[in-house]
């Protein structure tokens, strides 16, 4: 098994579409399909299920994706680390932060950057996700931190940290008798989801999750922010699907973990094509360290 096999697999697992994955990798679809078949043959397991209309991960594929992603992240972090020398240390780092992403992992990233030696000047601009990516594309920032890895197709992308998604339901809802919820349980519910123009990255990730599990909600209520979605849940108008770090803001609701491992919200790092600059390499290295820190968002969850 070679690193290229892992990279091919991870991209296909993230796109769940061989043509898009091949385009993202800059290769033809046929050799990409052969690479995945070779990997499955070496492992002796099936990683994907495919029909003429869609592709999705098997249970073994979902677990392999998590481990392959971790290995590649470690390899990329090691590569970035050894490429940097004392003379290449950045003196400034400019971050374009997507709206509503000032979470605990981002706080840790900021802390590490501000205490880096030798000292770097840190600049953070909070913008809409599309604007953050555009600022990097135009040279106004080094790295965009966003929920949408496809916000700017010309930018490179690296997975940052992730956090589980949590179901938020009215206090009297039948979900309140459960300890966990399956994604499939949401098929007949009304969900509060953000408008595409407000948080496209969140919506893309939610729709990808539903697609992987063949789920179509019964109805939706459009909202602009996660806090509004929680309010809709508290008043019985809809079910919310929120990042786990938001559960402390909820009242008059029940909050439940989702049993599927891929029910998570991923934060991405976008940067310009070419050899990563010292500033980008530093951000990616620290982001990988932040992502590896164990977190418990729901202390009472099993």
Explain how this protein is built.
The chain has 3 domains: 3-81, Winged helix-like DNA-binding domain superfamily/Winged helix DNA-binding domain (Arc Repressor Mutant, subunit A); 89-161 and 265-291, D-Maltodextrin-Binding Protein, domain 2 (3-Layer(aba) Sandwich); 162-264, D-Maltodextrin-Binding Protein, domain 2 (3-Layer(aba) Sandwich), CATH 3.40.190. The chain is built from 9 helices and 11 strands. It has helices spanning 3-15, 18-25, 29-43, 59-83, 104-114, 129-137, 200-212, 226-234, 278-291, and strands at 48-50, 55-57, 92-98, 121-127, 143-146, 156-170, 190-194, 219-223, 239-243, 253-257, 264-271. The strands form 2 sheets. Strands 3, 4, 5, 6, 7, 8, 9, 10 and 11 form a 9-stranded mixed sheet that branches. Strands 1-2 form a two-stranded antiparallel sheet. Strand 3, helix 5 and strand 4 form a beta-alpha-beta unit. Helix 1 (3-15) packs across helix 2, helix 1 (3-15) crosses helix 4 (59-83) and helix 5 (104-114) crosses helix 9 (278-291). The chain is globular, with a radius of gyration of 20 Å. 37% of the residues are buried. Mean pLDDT is 86; it is low at 298-302.
